[in-house]
Amino acid sequence: MSGASILVYAERVGGNLGHIEKLLKGPLADFNGIHVLPFFHPYDGDDAGFDPIDHKIVDPRLGNWSDFKRISETHELTADLIVNHASALSPEFLDWQEKGDASDYAGLFLTFDTVFPNGGTEEGITSFYRPRPGMPFTAYEVAGKRRLVWTTFMPSQVDIDIKHEKGQAYLRSILDALKSGGVKVVRLDAVGYAVKTPGTDSFMTKETLEFVADIADLIQSYGMRVLVEVHAHYTQQLEIAPLVDLIYDFQTAPLLLHSFFTGTVDRLDDWFKIRPNNCLNVLDTHDGYGVIDGGPINGRPGLITQDEMAFIFKKAEENTNGHSAIASVVPQWFSLPHQINATLPNIVANDTAYVIMRAVQFFLPGEPQIYYVGLFNGMDDVELFNQTGQGRDVNRHHFTPEEIEVALQQPVTKAILGLARLRKLPVFEGAYTWSVTGGDSLRIEWVNGSDSLILDFTTKVGAPAFTISVNDAAGSRSYNSLEELASAR
What we know:
- This protein has 489 residues and is an alpha/beta fold.
- It is built from 19 helices and 21 strands.
- The longest helix is centred in the middle third of the chain and has 16 residues, at 165-180.
């Protein structure tokens, strides 16, 4: 896909799919794709839609499948296949709870004894990697008996047994619905946790990669592309990239913060040397701003060190007046949060540095995707966080139509829209190179025949700067400020 895409919650960008469609036909017309985060029934469960009661229908408060079909006629549509779990309120789980082995859904949900048929030891149980505090299973009443059901994320998110025929049939039924709704790209959500293998931490293991390859083949047989979401050590990203159509580049995000907080570019240079080309280029997302992806994990050195990760969190805390430290969660058996819970404009606290980061995101090989809060230059929603107590909600503001209109007039948002227009130029069908031009400066260059585009930027602390130079059939032009970039074409 040429051009950039946008990542949204349907209910948080104007309230419904209808308003999003208007934006895509109007001020956001330069985005070629859209990923609508879980819009299934209900979109407002315990985990903001990632705990669907019915994974096959659109929540009627947002719209219906015909709305998606219409959007998919002009934009590449991405939707989630939540591989790891369903809601404890789903009809399938409730039926199994009532009938037990007599249920049509017996075997669909993963239990403790399925993973540990001979019983689990303390070492075996505690070796499992879990992104949140506590044990990865919850006691449920099933046909009059207490059963331990695997719940990797929340007690209300019950894990699917993806090895069981009932689990596989469940996933195929969701793919049928997505295909009929016009979805072109399927994002495998939480796939890194889907395979439980005793004796390992069960995160991104050899068995996980085998499952990814199998389900990718299945999705591609539907004529849809596969996007895998894995927050992991960068070497694991490199391993999984050849198995799918798209892999998230979660590494560039923390490395950019390191660069602008320290005035260096060497770590970016290290990553660019090995970075896959089939990346979805992201910075901020609905899950916060990832930092762990660039650091050391399980004794393996990272692209940045543990101390450098800690420095990023410290600077973010300073720039958010202490709030990111309150909202960011340290998972079980780890010393730092996985991500910064704050909006990227708040974390960076410098408009020029922020837009340079977006330019890098847009101009690297791959497919750039911008999160709606970042596009609208959103600030931390402390009020929403105080209401829910969920750290990630600081970066999940509900934008009203009126707030969107105001945001679209901001210099930062207008500059980002300029980047989206530039990303559609034919030069991006050519050859890409990069070079370090100084201790704090770097160049990204694209050439396609006589067309060229060059981004030069410096990460000098307190004095970030950039120049974007374009030469093509429309002439030679350059952009050195947010105001100039707003008119870029």
